[in-house]
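A favour, since you know our structure tokens better than I do. Just paste the record in under my message, thanks.
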Amino acid sequence: MRVFSRPVPLLTAAIGVIGANSLVLPPIAPAVAADLTTEVATILRAAAAYGAGTALSALLLAPRADVVGSDRVLRNASLLLILALVLSALAPNGYVLMLGQALAGLCAGVALPSIYSLAAQVAPTGQEKKTISRVLTGWTLSLIGGVTLSAVIADQLGWRAVYGLMAGLTIVIWLCLRLCDMRAEKLSSRPTSPFTALRVPGIVRGLFSNAMLMLAFNGAYIFMGAHVVENMQLSTSATGVITLLYGLGFALAVAFNRYLEMMTLRRLGLFAFSGLSVTYLLMDHLSMSFALLLPISVVWGVFQHFALNLVVDRLTSLDPAQRGAIMGLNSAVTYLTVMSGAILYRLPYEYGGLALCLAFSALFAAIAAVEAYWPQRLKTYSAAE
């Protein structure tokens, strides 16, 4: 029996829970490493395993949503995520934690593309962009209610309680999904694939834009917790405060969406990514001042929302019949940057600390700004024209 008929708030909550797991480990990594008597770098490999699992799943499994229905795929992925979170909570060592996070990544790789696809499907005609923006605020829930609260819980109750809480919340989401009438359509009669989606005009540049955006973010975010604890000599909760303010900025950005809709795609991309690049440079300069990092984190969240909303809107409007495959590619790129951010940024962090990581992030955001304003016409559909 279906008792819910308004799916958008539920999709927003689903992103909040799934997103919290994808973001929570780096800030609490020092606490996890101490409990498991290993190095922070070893724990961050679990974040890399999560990224690898998500990327693999997004490439191979997400296109199935176009055939069987995104709502069904989301329910099944949520059920399996419960198992992954329980395994993570009970992990006796770093290797089991990696296994749990790799399994969680496989779930996220199909769940997130399904959520983005459902957001476009359930939106009223002409309100697709606004609906996608509302669903994306789920990342704010994951940052404020998930990551920030998790940092406090890790300090007070231990890191295992964090994963136990997320498992409980995922159970609630799964039950609500079973009771919600998404009215989702099957977009295709046969499975698409990443290879067919790669032939869609505009897809390569759209994915490149997302790669630059998320590599810049993950390189800075993954090592922020280690920087605050190891170099600033502050607690895990202090990292949670930075995440909280970033999330508040991400949420506040929604108020400006109606003004950004009046900008062309090229100008919006230039504005969003240039703003991100300047923000990373400011954070680079102020990386040893916790008090000054806090207000800059709000600005970071604002411009990250602008850029992410642009990327998702740009990709979901390319080819509705292959939306599952396209968003699967998008998630694959996103979480490959999680894996590469944990690996590629490790050397800059060891040699130059967070400041050098932020310098690289500023460079990647600047490259994305150049791509966005490149004069070649972007061949896209409707909302991205």
Remarks:
- The CA atoms of residues 116 and 132 lie 7 Å apart.
